[in-house]
Amino acid sequence: MAASSAIGSAPKIAWNETQRRFETEDKKAYVEYVLRQDGKVMDIVHTFVPSSKRGLGLASHLCVAAFNHAKSHSLSIIPSCSYVSDTFLPRNPCWNSLLYSEELRSNI
């Protein structure tokens, strides 16, 4: 029973502004980003989860933290990381509205 309740609880994700990443409390799993367009666009460049922690949904939790941050700070997102573009976004299309597009460039 304890194991199922642990799976149901979301891990704590911290924003590490100096290293430009969102990470788990133990700092072993993270999403890295680069700010572009004078800080108005978050380019997510890398997602990493150690093999010992894979299969727990950590990558998705990390992406949700990054997307929530972008949304609350009015940032657009470039999904350069293949996990974000090929796995996270197809499974979570509700975030597509935050994606940076060329049409927006004239407004930036």
Automatic annotation (TrEMBL):
Domain of life: Eukaryota
Entries under InterPro entries matching the protein: Acyl_CoA_acyltransferase, Gcn5-rel_NAT, GNAT_YJDJ
Pfam families: Acetyltransf_CG
Occurrences of domain N-acetyltransferase (ranges): 12-100
The protein's name in its UniProt record: N-acetyltransferase domain-containing protein
Source species of the chain: Hibiscus trionum (Flower of an hour)
